[in-house]
Design goal:
With about 250 residues, the protein is mainly beta. It folds into 3 domains: about 55 residues, no CATH class; about 100 residues, Ribosomal Protein L25, Chain P, CATH 2.40.240; about 90 residues, Beta Complex (RNA Polymerase Alpha Subunit, Chain A, domain 2), CATH 2.170.120. It has 5 helices and 16 strands. The strands form 4 sheets. Strands 4-6-5-9-8-7 form a 6-stranded mixed barrel. It has a 4-stranded mixed beta sheet with strand order 13-10-12-15. Strands 1-2-3 form a 3-stranded antiparallel beta sheet, with no helix packed on it. A hairpin with a 6-residue loop joins strand 8 and strand 9. The N and C termini lie far apart (about 65 Å). The N terminus is likely disordered.
């Protein structure tokens, strides 16, 4: 039981935080927890801490549920946005374009993915199933809002050209960095071409053995089976530098 002084809130501090608990590759529950600390100064008692579980506030879902749009045009899109919904379209070489909409709260969940540009989403449009990547995502100029999404439907028989994020490992063990060299990361992602079923979520680059004056180019990357660098397909002149170590000035 809290004393009367504590109940009156003579001194109380609130903190709010989130705990994320992944359940598998697709689902991640985000719990909202609030801490309220009461300090009963007059009675000289110790601090009392309450933990309030406010419930699950975010969940990443395996299938994105969308609805077909009946009205199309700028006016209709503005009405959707005012209703906290996002206009979108699904298109591809093998399908007719489909105008759809999705609740903005679901969009906020999945756009936080680090592999957003290279992830293949399962879409459910009023019972019709599609597999698609996000080809373009438009945001509001100053509000934290997504205003439009372009989904590109994929086919298992049709190669994709997609930007895949780079993940750099062992920078703390890098030979050159230990000698005082300056690390320059020239690329954050690389454009690849491959079939959807072998599309990697990221490309890993190990920096452990990189020494002063050395660099890693696209041609040095060990590409997964069935995955090609789009730039290298254009010729040797497109062998871009991914990362380099130079002497400190």
């Amino acid at each position: 039981m809290l004393s009367q002084n504590a109940k009156k809130g003579i001194s109380d501090v609130e903190e709010s935080f989130f705990i994320e608990k992944p359940t598998n590759d697709w689902f991640c529950l985000r719990y909202h927890v609030k801490i309220i600390r009461f300090l009963d100064r007059l009675a000289g008692r110790k601090q009392v801490t309450l933990f309030l579980f406010l419930g699950v506030v975010m969940q990443d879902i395996a299938v994105l549920n969308l609805s077909r749009r009946a009205d199309i045009g700028k006016g209709a899109s503005r009405r959707l946005r005012r209703a906290e919904r996002v206009p979108a379209i699904i298109y591809g070489h093998h399908i007719e374009p489909v105008a759809v909409e999705i609740e903005h709260r679901f969009v906020v969940n999945f756009i936080r993915r680090k592999d957003l540009s290279s992830h293949i989403f399962d879409l459910n449009v009023d019972g019709a199933a599609y597999k698609a990547i996000i080809k373009n995502l438009e945001r509001h100029v100053y509000k934290n809002k997504v205003t439009h999404i372009e989904f590109q439907a994929v086919s298992a028989k049709e190669a994709l050209t997609v930007d895949v994020p780079l993940v750099f490992l062992n920078a703390d063990r890098c030979v050159g960095i230990k000698k005082g060299a300056v690390l320059s990361l020239n690329l954050k992602s690389v454009k690849v071409r491959c079939l959807p079923q072998v599309l990697p979520s990221s490309i890993t680059i190990d920096l452990a053995d990189l020494d002063v004056g050395q660099s890693i180019h696209l041609s040095h990357i060990q590409w997964p089976a069935g995955v090609e660098s789009y730039e290298l397909m254009l010729g040797k002149d497109h062998d871009l530098s991914v990362v380099a170590l130079s002497e400190a000035e």
